[in-house]
Amino acid sequence: MMIKKIIAIASAKGGVGKSSITAALALNMSKSFKVGILDADIYGPNQHILFNLQDAKPNLITVDDKKMFQPVMHEGISINSMGFILDADKAAVWRGPMLSGAIRQLIESTIWGDLDFLFIDMPPGTGDAYLTIASEIKPDACILVTTPNKLAVADLIKTISTMNKLAVNISGYVENNIANFKTNGDYKILEDKGIPFISSIPFDEDIYHFDLNNTPNGIKDLSSFIASTV
Fold first, then answer.
1. I need a labelling partner for 152 at 20 to 30 A (CA). Which of 61, 159, 173, 226 fits?
2. Spans in the chain with pLDDT lower than 50
3. What is the largest CA-CA distance in the chain?
4. Between the CA of residue 226 and those of 5, 78, 122, 186, 198, what are the distances in Å?
5. Helical H runs in 112-216?
6. What is the dihedral angle through the alpha carbons of 121, 125, 129, 132, rounded to the nearest 10 degrees?
7. DSSP 8-state assignment for residue 104
C-alpha cells in the first residue's frame, strides 16, 4: 500500500467550500489518477452527502488480527468519512483526545491501497485535527480555500500561521466565489506572505446543487496545478 502524495484542502473559515472543492477535484483527477478522499471533519462530515452515499458503509475486514475499513468506492475514488460510521442524526460530542483518536482511526485503519493522491477534506478551525493530521499523516502540501469575503481572507491568515508552525508546505490558494460575489477579493495580504494564487472558481449552479460531474474551469486549473507541481 503506497500513497504518493497527500494534500490537505484547508481553511480556518467554515462555509468556504472546502468539501465541494475536494469532491469536485477528486472526481476530475480520478479520470487520470488513482485518488482517495479522507473526510477529516469529524463534527460535520460532508463527503457522503456530496456523493449521495448517505446509506453506504465501509466494509470491515480482519487483517493480521486487526479490524480494518475498506473505503467506500465511488467512480473510482476511495472515500472514508465519519459520515459513513455515525448515525445521520447523531452528533459527535467529543473532546479533543476523542476527536484526535477518531481521525487517527480513519487514517490508520483504512486500507487505502495504492493511490497517486489522497485529498484530506480538513475541518474549519486550527485545533486538534490539524495537530493530528500534521503529526500522523504529514501532508505533502496544503491548498488553501477562501471566498472574496474579507472575513474568509482574515481567517485564512490563521490557517497559514498554523501550517507554518506545523511545517506543512502551502502550495497556494484558491478563490471560491461560492456566494456569487460581484466584487473581487483583496488578497494582497496573502501575496505579501508569499502564498501564490492557483485558480478562481466562479459561482456554479451545478456545484451548488451537488452535481459535481460538470467540472468548472477553476477545478480543471487546480487539477493541472496539482498534477504538475505538487
1. 226
2. none
3. 57
4. 10, 18, 17, 24, 10
5. 128-136, 150-165, 188-192, 205-208
6. 110
7. H
Query: Cα separation of 1 and 64, whole Å?
Result: 15
H or E stretch covering 189: helix 188-192
Q: Round to whole Å and give the CA distance between 176 and 181.
A: 10
Dihedral angle sign, alpha carbons of residues 164, 24, 104, 129: positive
Residue with cell 504538475: 228
Kindly calculate the radius of gyration of the chain based on its CA atoms and give it in whole angstroms: 17
Residue 154: how many other CB atoms lie within 10 Å = 13
Q: Which backbone phi and psi does 54 adopt, to 5 degrees?
A: -60, -25
CATH number of 3-229: 3.40.50.300
Q: What are the residues facing 72 on neighbouring strands? A: 79
Please answer whether residues 141 and 57 qualify as being in contact, where contact means their C-beta atoms are separated by less than 8 angstroms: no
H-run or E-run covering 172? strand 170-176
Q: How many other C-beta atoms can be found within 10 angstroms of the C-beta atom of residue 65?
A: 5
Cα angle 147, 197, 2 (rounded to 5 degrees) comes to 95
User: What type of residue is 133?
Assistant: I
Distance CA(59)–CA(69), nearest Å, equals 6
Neighbours of 140 (CB within 10 A): 17
- β-pair partners for 145: 174
CA–CA distance, 136 with 188 (Å, rounded to integer): 33
